[in-house]
Amino acid sequence: MGCDGGTIPKRHELVKGPKKIEKVDKNAELAAKWKYCALSQEKLRRPIVSCELGRLYNKDAIIEYLLDKSAERPNAEAVAHIRGIKDIKELNLTDNPEWEGERRNTKGDRYEDIHCGMFICPVVGLEMNGKHRFCYLQTCGCVFSDRALKEVKTEICHKCGDPFKDEDIVVLNGNKEEVDKLREKMEEKRAKAKTKKSKKSKATETVSTSESKGEAMGEGELCSVKERRGRVTQRRDKSGRKRGKPAAPQV
């Protein structure tokens, strides 16, 4: 029954120490962010969209969510800030010629690069696999590496030629600080749009009110003119002549 024959147990065999903290596999974490939809957890497939916080989604998953927000989803908090189709942007991605997709050989008879990304930067050729910082432009949806935007500074998109500004750049799958900045930027943008909309509605109400007042005043003036004409007509019928005009001399 154990400890027979004079064996002495050691301390670590009798006393259980604290459990070791399981470390998160960085490769698995990168694959989850850059190869899987943040909402459905399915593999990313075209068309791929992104929100104002830089998360990646399958477009069909977002459409299903918008059609039925009441359905229970395990990652619903990842899309809580998406109100409609205008809050997402379809990405214009550049395919990686070295990506073999599902046809990749997994029998172990050759080396398999698990860091190979599905897409690359069209300017410098870096793979979009989580090792390099990538961004997209809210104006056109084109995706580039951060290195390309910094090394080749321009106000025109490298891929489609559309103009853009620095505030149109959104970091994809950024860290916590970058996501917090993007969230502040998103809330500020929505607040400005809401204020602008309320001012526009007030201006429309003011114009409609002034027009209705003008119409009422016009109707009042028309009525007063009609009354004055009626009075003049009555005077003519009584006197047989216009007011202020001398009568014809009697013979």
What does this structure look like?
InterPro entries: Rtf2, Rtf2_RING-finger. It holds the Pfam family Rtf2. Residues 191-201, 228-245 have a biased composition (Basic residues). The chain is of the alpha+beta class. It has a domain at 26-100 and 113-175: Herpes Virus-1 (2-Layer Sandwich), CATH 3.30.40. Helices cover 37% and strands 10% of the residues. It has five helices and eight strands, in the order H-H-E-E-H-E-E-E-E-E-H-E-H. A hairpin with a 4-residue loop joins strand 1 (48-51) and strand 2 (56-58). The protein is elongated, with a radius of gyration of 37 Å. The N and C termini lie far apart (160 Å). The model has no long low-confidence stretch (mean pLDDT 80).
Which characteristics define this entry?
single chain; 251 residues; alpha+beta; Herpes Virus-1; three-stranded antiparallel beta sheet; 5 helices; Replication termination factor 2; Rtf2; Rtf2_RING-finger
Largest sheet: 3 strands, antiparallel
Helix count, DSSP H or I runs of 4 or more residues: 5
Judged by helices, strands and strand pairing, the structural class is alpha+beta
Straight-line N-to-C gap: 160 Å
Task: Detail the poorly predicted runs.
Answer: none
Q: Which series of helices and strands comes N to C?
A: HHEEHEEEEEHEH
The rough form would be described as elongated
CATH superfamily of the domain at 26-100 and 113-175: Zinc/RING finger domain, C3HC4 (zinc finger)
Rounded mean pLDDT is 80
**Rg, alpha carbons:** 37 Å
Kindly state the percentage of residues in helix.
25-40%
Count of β-strands: 8
CATH-derived topology of the domain at 26-100 and 113-175: Herpes Virus-1
